[in-house]
Automatic annotation (TrEMBL):
UniProt biased composition (Basic and acidic residues): 83-92
Name this protein carries in UniProt: Lipoprotein
Highest taxon above the source species: Bacteria
UniProt source species: Candidatus Spyradosoma merdigallinarum
Disordered, as annotated region: 73-92
Length: 106
C-alpha cells in the first residue's frame, strides 16, 4: 500500500512544483504586476520629467494645453491643490471666479 501511495504522491508533488502548475503561473503574474520600488534610473527619469515640465511652464512659448498634454503623456499628476470644504457664499464665489478669469486673461 505504501508503494502505491508514493507512486501517486510523486507525480502530484512534481506537478505542484513545476511551471505547468496554474497556481505558480498566477503567482508569477502577481509578482510581475505588483508595485515595485523605483530604481535609481526611475527616480532620475522622474526628476528629468519634472525639470522639463518646469521649463515648459516658465517658457511663454508653450500654451497651457501643451503643458497639460505633456503631463498626461508622461503620467505626471498635477500638484495637489488645497480644497476648502466649508460652504461658500455667493458673493465669495463670484469674487473668486472673477479673480480666476482676470488671471486667465493676463
Amino acid at each position: 500500500m505504501h508503494k502505491y501511495f508514493l507512486l501517486l504522491a510523486l507525480p502530484v508533488a512534481v506537478f505542484f512544483v513545476s511551471g505547468c502548475n496554474p497556481f505558480s503561473y498566477f503567482m508569477i503574474y502577481e509578482y510581475s504586476s505588483s508595485e515595485k520600488p523605483d530604481t535609481v534610473a526611475d527616480e532620475r527619469m522622474t526628476e528629468l520629467e519634472q525639470a522639463r515640465e518646469q521649463r515648459m511652464a516658465l517658457n511663454p512659448n508653450y500654451r497651457e494645453a501643451e503643458i497639460e498634454a505633456y503631463r498626461r503623456s508622461r503620467g505626471i499628476s498635477a500638484p495637489t491643490q488645497h480644497v476648502d470644504t466649508r460652504p461658500v457664499s455667493t458673493d465669495e464665489l463670484r469674487a473668486r471666479l472673477e479673480k480666476q478669469a482676470a488671471e486667465r486673461k493676463k
